[in-house]
Amino acid sequence: MIRTNGIFDMKYCDLKLLSDHRKEQLHDAIDSVLQSGWYLRGEATERFERHYARYIGTRYCVGCGNGFDALWLILRAYKEMGVINEGDEVIVPANTYIASLLAITENRLVPVLVEPNLETLQIDESQIEKAITRRTRAVMIVHLYGSCAYSKRIAEICKKYELKLVEDNAQAHGCEWNGIKTGALGDAAGHSFYPTKNLGALGDAGAVTTNDEQLAEIIRELGNYGSSQKYLFERCGRNSRIDEIQAAVLDVKLSWLDSDNQSRRNIANIYDKLINNPLIRTAKMSSRAVYHIYPLFCEKRNELQTYLKEHDVETVIHYPVPPHLQKCYPALKRSFPITELIHQQELSLPCYPMMKEKEADHIARLLNDFF
Ligand SMILES: *Cc1c(COP(=O)(O)O)cnc(C)c1O
């Protein structure tokens, strides 16, 4: 919050504030990579992978280029293993970010969209079984907004129909379900370290976590042109590696992740407690949510956004157009009323680690004065 001439200026997410706060440690991490003279697939990557696997609670972590690649590599590796074949179906929530779907379609697999629950915003477990066909091979759950999408029932359905359970954990680093971290709940998980995510790099980066040794090995090969031995190529892979610099930065930031997530929870608690405008609905987040996003719902969403903007509060819509109504997916066009309602009414409030509690307080009061 910067007050210049009494003007209140509240950013949606202030990344510079975060970087400034940790400038020295970040500089040291970057400098050590510079000094090492080794910029890909080196010690920093190995260290981060080891620390992140331990943090999530899986045996393996494989770094890659970004969150999309992480998801794409998981499905691609299952194809290499013969678990999934071209044209097979993957169940995915209809209200997810486009990357989850692209990871499916860019593997020539078919996304089968399932509506979310209107309160939790997560895939509606009661709708999953109906969506299963003879061609279904996997369920991709997405821990949207930093809230857990997993449930015992989903795991049971996957077991019953012999489906792989893939987690898109791009928005939920550190989120827990019964003491287990998201990213360790299914067969494999894709993580994005896009700068604004709860664990964010200073550029693009991603990772896969899994307990499946064979899967981890194949993913490591696929991300390195399909090679496990220099200049020998067993599979047709691609280039998707994590930079040493990003790995070193992420390793430093990982040590702050829990306290950063706690700061997000504190901001979210203030909103939960103070917002009491009948025109505004908040979401039912899971008990150990990490609030990548703090979503609100309002029939007059666009007016609300303009009103907040007039009071110098920046907000974001996650997301204005759902995947099934995007131009790139004409074949997916049909009606998903709950998803569409979410996209029409959602508004995300500022909620990030360096935010001041009095700022959240102020925003809550502004919201209560709306209309
Ligand atoms: C950010 C995000 C991704 C993609 O991550 P990138 O690192 O940008 O490729 C995938 N899924 C979800 C739900 C995301 O929020």
Automatic annotation (TrEMBL):
Q: Pfam families given for it?
A: DegT_DnrJ_EryC1
Transferase is among the record's keywords: yes
Q: Which InterPro entries does this one have?
A: DegT/StrS_aminotransferase (IPR000653), PyrdxlP-dep_Trfase (IPR015424), PyrdxlP-dep_Trfase_major (IPR015421), PyrdxlP-dep_Trfase_small (IPR015422)
Keyword Transferase in annotation: yes
Q: Which UniProt keywords apply?
A: Aminotransferase, Pyridoxal phosphate, Transferase
Any GO MF annotation of the entry: transaminase activity
Query: Family, per the entry?
Result: Belongs to the DegT/DnrJ/EryC1 family.
Name of protein? DegT/DnrJ/EryC1/StrS family aminotransferase
From which organism does this entry originate?
A: Xylanibacter brevis
